[in-house]
Structure formats: C-alpha cells, structure tokens
Amino acid sequence: MPSETGHLRWNLEHVLLPKLDVLLEEGDRISLLRAEARRGLLSRPKALPPKWFYDARGSALFEAITRLPEYYLTRREREILNARAVEIAQRTRAATLVELGAGSAEKTRVLLNALAHAGTLRRFVPFDVCVPAIHDTAAAIRGEYPGLDVHAVVGDFQRHVGVLPRPALAGGTRMVAFLGSTIGNLDATERTRFFIALRSLLSPGDFFLLGADLVKSKARLDAAYDDASGVTAQFNKNVLRVLNRDLDASFDENKFDHVAGYDPERELVDIRLRARATHVVAVRALDLMVSFTAGEEMRTEISTKFTRAGLEKSLTGAGFDPAGFWTDVAGDFSLSLWKR
Ligand code: SAH
Ligand code: AVI
To answer: Which of 164, 132, 157 is nearest to 49 (CA)?
Structure first.
C-alpha cells in the first residue's frame, strides 16, 4: 500500500508531468548504437553518427556552445525569431507545434508565445533522441504554459518521423519546426530522405519551419567550430565517453585531438577526432578491437552550410511550397517556412 506522501507524489506527477511517447526504448537505443558504431568503426575512413553526442553531458555541452562568442548560429536564429514569430504565427495559425531535435527548446518559447498570442496554439510536441533533455524541456514548458497540451516524444528523427503518434498530431493546422541548423548534420542523401518522410507525415495546409545556417567565410566557420575555450572539443570527444559507457569501450579522449574545418567546395564543416598516436581501442560490447594509426581521423559530424537557392531546390523538390524566407540583419542564418 503506498504511503500518503507516495500517493501525493504520484498524483502531482500525474498532473504535472507531460505525456511522453517513447519510440526509441533504452534497449532499442543500445541496439541502434551497437549497429551504427560497428558500421562506423569498421568503415574506412571511420565515422560515427552525430546523434550519439547527446547524452545529458553532451546536451549540456551543446548548450554551452550556444553561448560561445564564436558560435553565432543560436543568437542569429533567435534574432530572426524575435523579428518574425508574430508573422509566422499569423501566416500558419498552427494549433500544434512539433519540434524535431528540440533540445532545451529555449528559442522555441518565442514561437510558442506568438502562437499563444494569436490564439491558435493548443499542443506542443517536443521530439528528441536525448531522454534527459526532452524530459526537462517538456516539464519546464508544461510549467511555463499552463493549459498547453505538452506531448513529448523520444525518438530518432531519421527513423521515426513517419510514425509520430497520431494523438500528438490530432486536430488543426500543424507546424513542424526544425531549428538550430540541425538539418546540416545530415548528409545530402539523408536530407532528401528526411524531407520526403516529413512531407508524407504532414497534411495539405500544414507547415515546416526550418532554421538553416548560411555559407560564409572560412575564417568565421573555422572559429565557430573550434572555439578558443575548447568547449566544442569537449562536445566532440563526448561521443567517446558515450561509447565507453554504453558499449564498454576503452577510448582515452586524451589520445585524440578535435579537428574541425570548413571545406568551401563541399560547403560543410568537417568535424573529426584525430588519433595522436597509434593505439588500439577495445569495444567489448561489439567484441571488437579497433586500431588507430597516428594521425588517423574519424569523422564525428558534418555541419552543412546552405544557400537560399539550394534550400529552395531541395524543399520544392520534396514537394513543399515556399511560404517565407528570412535572415538576420547580417545575413548569417536563415529561417524559412514551407507549406505542404
Ligand atoms: N533545436 C535546439 C537544439 C539543437 S542541438 C537548438 O536549436 O538549439 C541538436 C538536437 O537534436 C539535440 O537536442 C539532439 O539530442 C537532437 N538530435 C540529434 N540527432 C537526433 C536524431 N537523430 N533524432 C532526434 N533528435 C536528435
Ligand atoms: C546541432 N548542430 C546544428 C550543431 C552544428 O552547428 O552543427 C552541432 C555542433 N557541432 C559543433 N558545434 C555545434
């Protein structure tokens, strides 16, 4: 028989905690990590998908990146949202806002406020692969917006966009937001697949709001992804800690350097970990011994930079109609609205 305080706690949690759908259970997450780590560590050059940066520590390190002087992206996107959220709310009249890769959803409050002010907002669906981040975000938003139906989803937006729970999407116009230029962390093939899956999730009249970083000078991009205080290096090396903990691996982050540089031809920042010396790493959960030679680089992320023309080609090619395109005053970052 639960105690009275136990009852009280259960009742309070029942009332205060937002709905949570888990499309990627812990067991599935580990199976996916095993499969993707095995494929990446056995490929040449070695590579790991960027979604594995984001455990609680990785998400906190990303938040620290957003406050770095060199990392202009978050500030620029917030500037655009501050200037355009009312217009976006009026244009979309969205009842449901789904946010993919929501993280802390800090900037999203600007959109939520505008939609609430327009009187159309009923539901917020933050979606993320990082359980602690989505849990904290959903609980915080629930507290800040009483009466808003907050329905959080744990999943991989590269796998689960097509299977978003219907109750989370029911009723009224939907807007799916994908902010922060996380789209740039997908390669061209992954982006095309993602846009097509997204379009089939949406109904005619729904909207997609995309934050995408724009092509600019190599000097600024190199600095943004290799900051003087070394926070991005810690973020990059966090993937090694995730593999150590979840795959019983023996990576020593002191044996790797963070390497990041903009490639103007491919219009992307290539982010890697470079082995300082020849050594072998055990990945016991995969029954693998992985050799690194001195100077060998393992890719951990790409961060693609876009042009307006390139975005228009991709999105219209996937069947979206342009419904708005804005940049910050300096022209560093873009926010664009697309109609299904
Ligand atoms: N949207 C926020 C956070 C960007 S950081 C902003 O603009 O500041 C990228 C976010 O996407 C992280 O919260 C990370 O956990 C999430 N993420 C990365 N890959 C993902 C995937 N494949 N599926 C779902 N979420 C993912
Ligand atoms: C989440 N994503 C958009 C960030 C980016 O800018 O590509 C991740 C990041 N990697 C290094 N710094 C920030």
So the answer is: 157
pLDDT band of residue 6 (cuts 50, 70, 90) is very low
Q: Is-cis flag, bond preceding 322, omega within 30?
A: no
Cβ partners under 8 Å of residue 25, min gap 6: none
Closest protein CA for atom 16 of ligand 1: 101
Residues with CB under 6 A from ligand 1: 51, 54, 59, 62, 66, 74, 101-103, 128-130, 133, 156-158, 179-180, 182
| The pair of three-digit structure tokens given for residue 275, joined into one six-digit string | 């082995």
pLDDT value of residue 169:
75
For the stretch 292-308, what's the b/e string if a residue is b when 16 or more beta carbons lie within 10 angstroms of its beta carbon? beeebbbbbbbbbbbee
User: Residue 269 carries which side chain, given as an amino acid letter?
Assistant: V
Work out the pLDDT band at 247, boundaries 50, 70, 90: very high
What distances in angstroms separate CA 22 from CA 129, 294, 339, one per listed residue? 10, 41, 28
What's the sign of the alpha-carbon dihedral 179, 185, 187, 190? negative
Q: Is 302 helix (H, G, I), strand (E, B) or coil?
A: strand
pTM: 0.94
Q: What is the predicted pLDDT for the residue at 163?
A: 82
Amino acid 146 reads: P
| Nearest Cα residue to 198 out of 142, 247, 127, 122 | 127
DSSP 187-211: -HHHHHHHHHHHHHHSPTT-EEEEE
236: nearest Cα among 263, 274, 291, 268: 274
